[in-house]
Amino acid sequence: MCSSDLQKLLQELGADTSTVKTGLGMMTEAVKGLTTSLAQDEPVKDLLASYAMEHFEIASYNALAVAAEASGLSEVAETCAEIISDEEAMAEIIADSLPRIVHDYLGSQKFSKAA
């Protein structure tokens, strides 16, 4: 299952899936893109932002799963658990690629040693 499945489940329960939340997320990504595009270390900053976002999503789905369980909505909680697993896998992929990205960045820079 994915977040769109969760959205359908929540809509069936009469919950309003916030367009404001979606809009803010899109705006945050756009602003992040503008700010990191001005930096020479853009790939490193983008990767760090992606890693942080994955963990924010993990925490959000955990909170939703707890609320769903407390409300007796086991199907919603199970869907959240599946999504959390996917988000954790993505966070691990990002974490695993961080050393390579940093090394690539450092290799592309010219560092001079002060004498």
Number of strands: 0
List the helices and strands in order: HHHH
Question: How much helix, percentage-wise, in residues?
Answer: over 70%
Structural class: mainly alpha
Strand content: under 5%
Question: What is the molecular shape?
Answer: elongated
Alpha-carbon distance between the termini?
58 Å
What's the gyration radius in Å? Answer: 19 Å
Secondary structure tally, helices:
4
Determine the mean pLDDT. Answer: 79
Low-confidence stretches: none
Largest sheet: none
Description:
This protein is mainly α and 115 residues long. The chain is 81% helix and 0% strand. The protein has helices at 3-12, 19-37, 42-70, 74-108.
Task: Jot down its keywords.
81% helix, mainly alpha, 115 residues, elongated, 0% strand, single chain
Could you give a short description of this structure?
The protein is built from 4 helices and no strands.
Give the topology, please:
Layout: H1 3-12, H2 19-37, H3 42-70, H4 74-108
